[in-house]
Amino acid sequence: MASDVTALPLEGRRILLGITGSIAAYKAAVLCRLLKCAGAEVRVVMTPLAKQFITPLTMATLSKNPILVEFFDPENGAWNSHVALGEWADCYLIAPATANTLAKMAAGVADNLLLTTYLSARCPVVVAPAMDLDMYAHEATQQNLRTLRSRGVEIIEPAEGELASGLRGKGRMSEPEQITAFVAELLDEKKKSLAGKRMIVTAGATIEAIDPVRFISNHSSGKMGYAIAGELAARGAEVTLITGRTALSTPRGVRRVDILSAAEMYAEAVRAYAEADGGVMCAAVADYTPAEVAQTKIRKHDGEMTLTLRRTQDIAAELGRQKGDRLLVGFALETDDEEAHAEEKLRRKNFDFIVLNSLRDAGAGFRGDTNKVTFIDRAGREELPLLSKREVARRIADKIETFLK
Ligand code: PMT
After folding, report:
1. Cβ(32) – ligand 1 distance below 6 Å
2. 345: enclosing H helix or E strand
3. What 3-state class would DSSP assign to 278?
4. 222 lines ligand 1 (CB under 6 A)
5. CA of 222 to the centre of ligand 1 (A)
6. Digit-coded pLDDT (tens) for 319-342
7. According to the model, what pLDDT value does residue 64 have?
8. Which atom of ligand 1 is nearest to the CA of 349?
C-alpha cells in the first residue's frame, strides 16, 4: 500500500552543531529544535565563551545529548574525541560562527574542541557567520571567508538588519529556518545524485621493490584520490578505493583495497572495473619496476651500480580498452608542455575526461591540501582556480554526474 507519509528532510542525518560566543547563540536553541524536527540527530559542541550566551543545559535538553566543550570531562577524565565527532557527523554546522572562530579556522588554530573537530572533520562543513557589520566587512574577515570557501567550507551569508550594537547592516546570522533548509538541501543533493552507481578510484603511490629494504616510489600522499572517493560515496555511489600505502583513514562508506605494487593495483583495478559503472584513475603508478627483485639486501660496493627496469602495465590504458559504455576519468601530472601531454593521454587511454595538474603551479599536485586543475575533454577545456582537494573532488564529481546522466 502506498504511504502518504513524506520522509523528513533530514531523516537519519547526523548534524554536529558548533556554537561560538556570539549574541546570536540564542538562535542556536531554535536551530537545534528545527534540525531535530526535520529528523536529524543532533550533537552540540560549544566554545567555552559560548556558554556565556546560552547554557549547556538548554542545548542538552533540546538536542537530547550531553554538550561537549572541553577536551575531556574534568569529573572523570573521559576524553571527548574530536576525531570521533568529526567521523560521526554527516555535516558540521557552526552557527553562529564569530569572526574570531572563522579566523582561527582559516589559520588552523586548534585551541578548543570546536576547532580541533573542524580540523579533523571529513564531512561537509557549513558556517553561519554572525558579527557586527564592520567586523564582517573587514578585509581580514573577508580574506578568512575566501580561504575557508576555497577549502570547501560552505558559507551561509549573514543577513542585513539591526545588530546587537544597535547599528544596522550586514552581519546578522541567517535565520534558523534558512539554515535548516540550507543543510537539508546540501545533504539531499549529495545523498541522491550517484545512488546506484558503482565507481572505482585508484589513489596514492605504488611501491616497486628493489630488494627487501629499498623500493622505487613517488610523492603521492593519496589525498586527492581519497577526497574523490569520499565525495563519490557521499553522493550515494558504491565506491571501491584501490590504494597504495598512505597515512589516511578510509573515507566513510568506501570499500578500501590496499595494494603495494603497480602489478597488484592492475589486478585489483581490472577486477573491480568489470563490475563498475566508472573509474577515476588518480593514483601515481610507477611506469617502471626493477626487472628483478633481489631476495637479500643488496650490499654496497665501490663504483656505480646499474639497476635494470622494465615497463609496468598501464592500468588506465587497459581499462580504456575494456571500457565499452562505462565512464573513465584520468589524471595527468605534468611538468612541461602540459596540455599537449594531457590531450595525448586523453586520446591514448580513452578517457572521457582528464584532470590535468602541473607541478609548475604553486599549491598543485603532490601532498598538499590544495590543487589547481584543468579539465580537458573532447569538447574543450575548463581551467579551475586553486582550490582545496575536497573542492576539486566536488567539481570532479559534478562532472562525473553530467557524464553518467
Ligand atoms: O596523492 P596526492 O599527494 O594528493 O597527489 C595527487 C596526484 C598529484 C598524485 C594526482 O593529482 C595525480 O596527478 N595523479 C596522477 C599521477 C600520474 O601518475 O599521472 P600520469 O600523467 O603519469 O598518468 C596518467 C594517467 O594514467 C593517470 O590517470 C594514472 O593514474 C594512469 N596510469 C599511469 C601509469 C600506469 N602504469 N597506470 C595508470 O593507470
Report:
1. no
2. helix 338-348
3. strand
4. yes
5. 10
6. 999 999 999 999 999 999 999 999
7. 95
8. 26
Q: Which run of H or of E encompasses 320?
A: helix 315-322
**Average pLDDT of the chain?**
93
Q: What is the pLDDT of residue 4?
A: 33
Is 218 marked active-site?
yes
Sorted by sequence, the CB contacts under 8 Å of residue 306 that are 6+ apart come out as none
Whether pLDDT at 189 is above 70 = no
CB of residue 273 inside a 6 A radius of ligand 1:
no
- Which candidate in 218, 350, 357, 371 is catalytic? 218
Confidence of residue 390 (pLDDT cuts 50, 70, 90): confident
Cα distances (angstroms) measured from residue 295 to each of 98, 211, 326, 402: 60, 6, 41, 49
pTM for the model stands at 0.66
Cα dihedral 50/53/58/62 (nearest 10): -70
**Atom from ligand 1 closest to the CA of residue 334:** 21
| pLDDT digit string, tens, across residues 1-42 | 333 345 688 988 999 999 999 999 999 999 999 999 999 999
Q: How far does Cα 51 stand from its chain's mean position?
A: 31
| Crossing angle of helices 26-37 and 176-192, rounded to 10° | 40
The residues, ordered by sequence, that sit 6+ positions from 154 with a Cβ below 8 Å of its Cβ are: 124, 125, 126, 127, 182, 186
Ligand 1 site, residue 244, Cβ cutoff 6 A: no
Domain coordinates in residue numbering, the chain: 2-191, 195-404
The alpha carbon of 224 and the centre of ligand 1 are apart by a number of angstroms equal to: 10
CATH of domain 195-404: 3.40.50.10300
365 close to ligand 1 (CB < 6 Angstrom): yes
Q: Does domain 2-191 have CATH number 2.60.40.2140?
A: no
Domains 2-191 and 195-404 share a fold: yes
